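sry for the spam today, last one i promise. struct tokens for design, 148 residues
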């Protein structure tokens, strides 16, 4: 599907499309309670990380604006063009766990809040000291880590 729809496109065009998506569409997709949870965690000095199988191009700008670290599926770029292939593995299931563990020493965290809504989130949810399945009725892009 990636090769069919975006394979061969210039990366800069995908970045512009992703930025437009982040500005114009994504805010309408984020559930109010999910955004409230993000802001509440940030207010309490909790580091917020979104872990998703979606491409970084669709979420990066939004995450940057909110000061949120993004762990996502990355697309392969060659000569400034999207190849339509994934760079590495799809950030799904156990790959979410591997990516989180590669960036964080989880034993240093007293509380790890995990939120998910698909079966692909189950391995990640097992990392949490406080895990929530479908708490926002459809938001699968949330993963929170906190250190006290």
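last one done:
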């Amino acid at each position: 599907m990636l090769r069919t729809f975006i394979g061969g496109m210039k990366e800069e065009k995908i970045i512009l499309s992703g930025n437009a998506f982040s500005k114009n569409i994504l805010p309408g997709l984020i559930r109010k309670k999910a955004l409230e949870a993000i802001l509440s965690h940030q207010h309490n000095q909790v580091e917020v990380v979104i872990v998703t199988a979606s491409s970084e191009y669709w979420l990066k700008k939004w995450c940057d604006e909110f000061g949120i670290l993004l762990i996502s599926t990355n697309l392969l770029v060659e000569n400034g063009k999207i190849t339509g292939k994934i760079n590495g593995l799809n950030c799904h299931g156990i790959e979410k766990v591997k990516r989180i563990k590669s960036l964080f020493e989880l034993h240093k965290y007293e509380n790890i809040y995990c939120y998910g809504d698909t079966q692909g989130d189950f391995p990640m949810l097992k990392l949490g000291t406080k895990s929530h399945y479908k708490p926002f009725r459809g938001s699968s892009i949330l993963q929170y880590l906190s250190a006290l």
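The first strand starts at residue 48 and ends at 55. ok im logging off now
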